[in-house]
Specification:
mainly alpha; Methane Monooxygenase Hydroxylase, Chain G, domain 1; 2 strands; 117 residues; 47% helix; single chain; two-stranded antiparallel sheet
């Protein structure tokens, strides 16, 4: 009986470790590219222009009437555009630099109808 109990504990431990590994790797994948808090308006606008002018980046949601138009401010529009660019470029860390005005976070900036993928 002791052997079966030890085996069960061992198998349970492996299962828990595997679940933790999967959860950790899933959390690592859920990063969002957003502007740094100290990014100025000029940098934010430049980031929007650059990201939205890049292939594979759809900025329609931050245009008037789009799901991410509100709140209508540079910081939220830049966050959407920068994250869309980050996604379009394989979620590579360097694709969130934006001349050192971008940063990665695990806090999801989605709100209302605006969803960050």
């Amino acid at each position: 009986m002791a052997m079966a109990s030890t085996t069960n504990v061992f198998l349970f431990s492996i299962l828990v470790l595997n679940l933790l590994t999967v959860t950790t790797s899933q959390q690592a994948e859920k990063k969002f590219c957003v502007p740094k808090p100290d990014a100025n308006d000029q940098a934010l606008q430049a980031n929007i222009d650059y990201a939205c002018g890049s292939p594979g980046v759809d900025c329609k949601p931050i245009q008037a009437g789009g799901d991410c138009f509100e709140p209508s401010n540079l910081k939220s529009h830049a966050a959407f555009a920068m994250h869309a660019y980050y996604n379009a470029n394989g979620r590579a860390e360097q694709s969130c630099d934006f001349y050192q005005s971008g940063t990665l976070t695990v806090e999801n900036p989605s709100s209302g109808k605006c969803f960050f993928v």
